[in-house]
């Protein structure tokens, strides 16, 4: 199926990715390495809602859209981390999709889900395919000539209670990249194999003290080792980038609601400040804290975040009685379980206490029981609350309940 060029940039971008299928991650046999909790809907629900909505997966499987799947890296994780789902992965590049199909064949990703479709289509032309419980569109909308039209098209496909994960370029951390792109354009460098050679040569011959070269060597050298990755960063024919103000305006214009960053630690003032300055920052409204971080950190090169059709409020589980009545699941996006020494959802080192490990083992053994029914002792609520805060324990919403604000 040939993509309909609903966006003016589509044919040019499609040709570019046919030449440089992106991302350039190697294909391997077996499951993808590690995990990414942002592509596991249960983990996303826990982070955004503070609980997992009650769903009957046997009657109605999760429906997931990977909008702009490229060479299938994200699709591979979506299949392995959401077993039993129905997955639609689309991209405008036939070349990228050829790689994606080979990747999912060799990883046996299609064996993990109820169905997998990988189709050459534009995300602007998916009428009738929704609604989806989860839409993933990473690094895609900013390559449309009209990103807002793309976001509105995805919004129309999102279920009323669904979530969408997006990744868009940020202005500040791409200053050097933009300058390099402009220089290559001024030199008449295009988007072919010769352009790739010239682009690499430019960053190699600039003086070692040059800011553009230093930025490339210190931040992006490893990431752009694959030719496709270098081309995507420095030779792309169409891209838009944002600051927080224009990002939030884009989301508002689409009719969607911002419900959280998927890299929240980046937006924590404690990452940059301490003492009285940190106290002053933490006294600000949370949105002002984000703008402060944007002011202070000029290396933020992208925004990764979740949106929904309606506002959401994370459930905090402050009442012991409510917490003890809840059924829970152990976070699946960890390495090392059942050891007490783990790597958490963001690959951070975690050491479990004896009580934390005991509670997680009991949850694994008796998923049908509420926390109070596990019979662990008076410490259960406090330990469970700590595990929830560390995103290692995911509560299930009661039937008819939830942490949403209409």
Question: Could you explain how this protein is built, in words?
Answer:
By secondary structure, this protein is α/β, with parallel strands linked by helices. It folds into 3 domains: 230 residues, 3-Layer(aba) Sandwich (Rossmann fold); 63 residues; 76 residues. It is 37% helix and 15% strand. The protein has 15 helices and 11 strands. A 7-stranded mixed beta sheet has the order 3-2-1-4-5-7-6, with helices on both faces. It has a two-stranded antiparallel ribbon with strand order 8-11. The protein has a two-stranded antiparallel ribbon with strand order 9-10. Helix 6 packs across helix 8. The longest helix has 14 residues. The two termini are 40 Å apart.
Write the layout of secondary structure elements.
Layout: H1 10-19, H2 41-48, E1 63-67, H3 73-81, E2 86-91, H4 94-107, E3 115-120, E4 132-138, H5 147-155, E5 158-169, H6 175-186, H7 193-205, H8 211-220, H9 227-234, H10 244-254, E6 257-261, H11 275-282, H12 286-296, E7 302-308, H13 320-325, E8 328-330, E9 341-343, E10 349-351, H14 354-365, H15 380-389, E11 393-395
Parallel strand pairs: 1-2, 1-4, 2-3, 4-5
Antiparallel strand pairs: 5-7, 6-7, 8-11, 9-10
Q: What is the percentage of strand-forming residues?
A: 5-15%
Which sheet architecture does the biggest sheet show? Answer: 7 strands, mixed
Distance between the termini: 40 Å
**Topology-level CATH name of the largest domain:** Rossmann fold
The CATH architecture name of the largest domain reads 3-Layer(aba) Sandwich
Number of strand segments: 11
By DSSP (H or I, 4+ residues per run), the number of helices equals 15
Provide the succession of SSEs: HHEHEHEEHEHHHHHEHHEHEEEHHE
Radius of gyration: 22 Å
Domain tally = 3
Any idea what the CATH superfamily of the largest domain is called? Vaccinia Virus protein VP39
Low-confidence stretches: 400-406
CATH class call of the largest domain:
Alpha Beta
Structural class: alpha/beta
> Which strand order does the major sheet show?
3-2-1-4-5-7-6
* Mean of residue pLDDT values: 95
């Amino acid at each position: 199926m040939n993509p309909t060029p609903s966006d003016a940039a589509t044919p040019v971008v499609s040709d570019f990715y046919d030449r440089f299928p992106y991302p350039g991650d190697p294909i391997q046999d077996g499951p993808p390495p590690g995990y990414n909790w942002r592509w596991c809907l249960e983990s996303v629900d826990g982070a955004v809602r503070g609980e997992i909505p009650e769903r009957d997966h046997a009657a109605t499987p999760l429906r997931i859209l990977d909008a702009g799947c490229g060479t299938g890296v994200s699709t591979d994780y979506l299949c392995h981390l959401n077993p039993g789902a129905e997955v639609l992965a689309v991209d405008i590049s036939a070349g990228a999709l050829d790689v994606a199909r080979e990747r999912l064949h060799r990883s046996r990703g299609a064996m993990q889900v109820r169905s997998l479709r990988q189709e050459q289509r534009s995300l602007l032309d998916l009428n009738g395919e929704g609604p989806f419980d989860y839409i993933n569109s990473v690094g895609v909308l900013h390559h449309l000539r009209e990103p807002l039209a793309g976001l509105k098209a995805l919004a129309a496909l999102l279920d009323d209670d669904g979530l969408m994960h997006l990744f868009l370029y940020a202005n500040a951390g791409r200053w050097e990249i933009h300058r390099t792109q402009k220089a290559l354009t001024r030199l008449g460098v295009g988007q072919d194999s010769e352009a790739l050679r010239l682009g690499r040569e430019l960053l190699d011959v600039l003086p070692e003290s040059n800011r553009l070269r230093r930025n490339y060597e210190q931040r992006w050298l490893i990431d752009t080792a694959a030719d496709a990755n270098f081309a995507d960063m420095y030779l792309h024919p169409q891209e838009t980038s944002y600051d927080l103000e224009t990002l939030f305006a884009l989301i508002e214009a689409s009719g969607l609601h911002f419900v959280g960053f998927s890299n929240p630690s980046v937006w924590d003032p404690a990452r940059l400040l301490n003492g009285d300055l940190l106290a002053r920052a933490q006294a600000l409204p949370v949105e002002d804290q984000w703008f402060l971080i944007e002011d202070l950190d000029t290396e933020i090169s992208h925004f990764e975040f979740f949106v929904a059709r309606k506002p959401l409020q994370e459930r905090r589980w402050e009442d012991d009685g409510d917490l003890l009545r809840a059924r829970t699941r152990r976070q699946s996006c960890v390495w090392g379980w059942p050891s007490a020494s783990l790597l958490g959802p963001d690959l951070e080192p975690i050491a479990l206490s004896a009580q934390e490990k005991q509670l997680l083992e009991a949850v694994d053994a008796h998923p049908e029981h509420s926390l109070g029914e596990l019979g662990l002792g008076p410490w259960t609520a406090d330990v469970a609350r700590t595990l929830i805060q560390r995103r290692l324990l995911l509560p299930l919403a009661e039937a008819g309940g939830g942490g949403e604000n209409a």
